[in-house]
Each structure stands twice: as C-alpha cells, then as structure tokens.
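Consider the record:
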Amino acid sequence: MSMKPLFRFAIPDARLDRSADFHYNAFMFSPIEWHHGVVRMLDQTRLPHEVVWVDCPDHQTVAKGIRELWVRGAPAIGIAAAMGYALGAQAIRASTHDEFIRQLKPIHDTLAGTRPTAVNLFWALNRMNTIVQLHKDRPVEEIKKRLVQEAQAIHDQDIQRNVAMGRHGAELIQDGDTILTHCNTGALATGGHGTALGVIFSAWESGKRIKVLVDETRPVLQGARLTMWELQQNKIPATLITDNMAGSFMKKGTIRLCLVGADRIAANGDTANKIGTYSVAVLAKAHRIPFYIAAPTSTIDFSIASGDAIPIEERNPEEVTNVFGKVRISPTNVEVANPAFDVTPAKYITGIITEEGVFKPGELKRKLGGSNRP
C-alpha cells in the first residue's frame, strides 16, 4: 500500500517549491516521501499560509528538518530518520562491510541526536541497523538498495497501521459526539491518514456526524495551525479554542471524549505526548470524560517500565517568548522553561488505540509485548 503526495512542481529541479496546484486528502496524502534519490518533505513550519515542499539531498538536511520541525509527529519522525539513514548510506564509498558500517555510524548518530522523546525515531533507526546486519554478506551496493526499500516499507506500513487504528478507534465514537484534540495527529504527523486525528477521519468517513474542539497547543500552535488546517481540508466541523478553555467546555458538558496521540508509551501505559496533554487528561478524569491515546505499536517502548524514564526534550526558549521567532510577547531577559512534552500517568488513560485494537494501559505488556521490535 503506497500513498504519495498529490502535487505538481512548477520547477522540477528546485530545492524549494511553493506548490500552487495542491490537493489534500487525509486518505491519500503523506508529508514525506523518497523521491528520485532525495527525501522530499512538506515544511510544516510554513502551514497554514504556504504549502512548501523541500528536497533534502543529504542526511544532514533531513536531520535539520527533524530538529526544526519541518517534519514532526512521532511516526513521521521515524519515517524521516529511516529515509535520512538510507539517503546517507547512498553517499558512502566503501568496498567492505566493515568500512561501510564505520561510515554509517556518524549518519546514525546525527539522526539519533535530533529529538530525544519520540521513540519511533530510534525504533526506525534500529530497523535500518538490523537490515545492515542481516545482509552483511551481501555487496555494499545491494545493502544500500535494501536500505531504501526498508525505509519505504516503514513508510507504507505506517499508513497501513494508521488506517487499521482509525477503524478500531472509530468504533468508540458515537454519532453526534464532540471530540477534544490536542496538538496535531493527522496525516501531517505520520506516513499518512494519522493517529488520533486519523480516528476522527475514519469516523467521519463512516458517516458519523461529529464535531471537533481543537486545542491551539502552545507554544508552537500545532493545533491552531495544523489540526485546524487538516480538518478544514476534510470539511469536518471544528472549533479552535485556547488550551486553557478545555476545562470550561468539559464543565459545560460539550465534550464527549478526548483523543490525543503519543510520542512514547512506557510498558505500564504512561504516555509522553505534547506538553499540555497531562492537563487535559486530569481535567477529563475530573469530569468523567473518556481519554484515549491513539498510537501505533512502534510508539510503545517496552524497555522502560514507566514514564519516569522517558527523556523530555527541552526546546528553544524563543518558542515561548516569541511568536514564530518574530514577534516578542514577553519582556527581555526572562527565565523560560520550554519542555516539549509531558507524561500522562496510565491511571488517567481510558484506553490506548493501536493497529492491533484498543487496550487498557495495564494490558500492553501482556498482550503486545515485543510487537514493536524491529
């Protein structure tokens, strides 16, 4: 199953393309692809005002794209890392397997050092390392081809998982429900279709009349910029709210359930997701509203017992003091904390939607243990 972005390029050889002829559909869209020997990604920092595609000619540019949020969302980060690894391998000039491995290591390390919280990045790199080891008796040029094939397989499998996840999750949504989301979890955050937002897309496609409340998701505004854009493109009724409005709408009885994604899930079900998720979960628990995580099994890290061991990325203070680095909204010389993620304890999570089905947090290790191994 392969889904490619639908767009045309006015300047075929351009490194940067502002695509005027552009069509979005969550079921037929991917923000990243392997394209004629380069990694092509949608620069999501330009959305919703511009649709800009960037060609990454080397693994360093892919790493820059991950760090600077051209591509974001745990599944998409994993795909980007795998493609960056394959891209870097193509430039290696080595005649022996040992020399090839030696030159691969800095490529791996550069990509692994981009963002620490999203486990899909490391899961994908481990899959790529496994391909190299499995084919160590093959010629180097053949290994390079197999790495490209593996990166593309990771991409295509993610779409398949998301569609299955959407099917399972859609069963939890009733006709007429209003759903609260946080951050962005649609096609933009994945290989295609999406995780939590993919569940909403699937419910909508099945004919359920639903509405979505979209947290803006400070400080980078992935909800306001990206989730609202995706919902508009799919003509799904949605209302944008600030993050601190969620509790008020819960008290009014507006929200039927909460759906969010994940960047890493510990073996006990504790879940790291975009900063602010913990607050939504606590509020949902207080108002007896179901709170669901939607994530592929590749996001479950069975090597860590609880969320206490999940590393939390600290990002540039200017994301908080400035709006997109341009308009300053705070005094100068202020102390800033900017953790990109927080951890929601399993006790606040009603269920975790995966491609294998919906599970309670405490069931993950027993029912899915080992399913996310390379």
